[in-house]
Write a structure and sequence with these properties.
Order of helices and strands: HEEEHE
Radius of gyration: 12 Å
Helix content: 25-40%
Distance between the termini: 18 Å
Strand content: 15-25%
Strand order of the largest sheet: 1-4
Amino acid sequence: MEYTEDEKWDTLMGCHVRAVQYFGGRMEMVLYDNMKTVGTGADEQGHPLWKERFARFAVHAPKGKWKTASAM
């Protein structure tokens, strides 16, 4: 866990870089707390509704599970 002063895109990407470095590469799961930078909620089945910019990032990021707290 890393404390930040905001949820801006550049801040989030910096957190991802440091997390990957800390864990030595690929992470099995990344959990988000419904932050506005990442998603807009969940659909009727509980699947996360990703923001377009985050969805483009996740396609190119190391493969793992991407979840929001509402999708748990």
